[in-house]
Design goal:
With 257 residues, this protein is an alpha/beta fold. The protein has two domains: 207 residues, NAD(P)-binding Rossmann-like Domain (Rossmann fold), CATH 3.40.50.720; 36 residues. 47% of the residues lie in helices and 16% in strands. Strand 1, helix 1 and strand 2 form a beta-alpha-beta unit.
Length: 257
Amino acid sequence: MSLEGKTAVITGSNSGIGLGIARELAKVGANVVLNSFTDRDEDHALAEEISKDTAVSAKYIKADMSKGEECRALVEKAGVCDILVNNAGIQNVDPIEKFPVEKWDAIIAINLNSAFHTTAAALPMMRDAGWGRVINIASAHGLTASPYKSAYVAAKHGVIGMTKVVALETAEEPITANAICPGYVLTPLVEAQIPDTMKEYGMDRETVIREVMLARQPSKDFATVEQLGGTCAFLCSDSAAQITGTTISVDGGWTAL
């Protein structure tokens, strides 16, 4: 499979899942546009590294995904968007009656509204090109729920609903829209949490991973950013041309329970 000549715009992609997806799409030939809300030398260096390693075009564009106009400007500045990966997201954990209103607003804006704005800007480009892929990184929490995560669960359920609408609106075109629903993914941020969690529970690394962090993930193993990137690459392939409007769970059996 080759995505040579295609350009992928990946939101929230200067670290973690988004960066992993960008690297995997670049490996199969896609030009990539990285994004976050910062504008540091190291952000641009990531794009340079990907370009050097894979010989594709890679660039970094700053845009704040909490602001609708910046979401749309990201796609416009990219100039072309054959593949849109809506990955940007934040989290907060609190009971509903104590959930900070500003946290609710920020989570809905970044995790849900941004995907609306980028998709609205990208679809005309895809139609002009005669091909497109919209891939929304939802979550196991887009299919189920956990206490104290009201905004995140609401946003991820909303992302899946919007994915279905986009798929129906493009059903007779060579454009697909799907959502990937990860469970617990081993990112640098998660890796950094393991030592503190070991201290909190007085457990060794393996036990705290199996019994605490992956308590709801039956495989008792993390998904990896490379696996999520590979799933994105598959959804961009010809083999996935009739896969649209659905979810693909990469959650070690979480949503099978």
